[in-house]
Sequence to fold (191 residues):
Amino acid sequence: VRLLVQALAIGADPCLAARVIGQPVVQALDHGFGVIDLDEVDDILQVLMLTSLLACVLSFHNTINRYLWVIGRERVLSSKFGQTHAKHQSPQFAGFVQFAVITGVVIVFAMSSFDPTMVVGWCSAFTATGILIMQILVSISVVRFFAVDHRGVALWRRAIAPTLSAVTLFVCLVLLVHHLDFVSGSQSPIV
Fold:
């Protein structure tokens, strides 16, 4: 636990945090086998961090595309967002719009005095916040929808579970906003 607290205190340097957490394990293995090179472990940890980041970015991309697709399908936005690719059935237009917006944000970061690499942390933090807000609203809308007509759906599925979900997600949102500097990897007042 002490090592985890130390790593969290390190803050915005995930490689250093991973090294602090992993150092006792590596030292124990090195003592036992005598073959572990700390530089190799550092390289492995960096690869793992990058693949984890890629998985997060792909997850955000998919989630946003699906939300835009549903919003377009229900005609809250233009119905073009609700269209899918003829062969793959993926939300093609929503994905293109999201890609264009993110590309614009990256260009703005690159042309400004901001560090372009910060776009990942900032956008991930804002995306996670937006997704949590959307999930809270969806949970609330489920309760409201079934309040009018139960449609034979059990009380747990129509009211209790979505309410618990909304409350839990709201607690997560409060924690996320409270620790946004840690989540985004930035101490910037903009974030």
The radius of gyration is 21 Å.
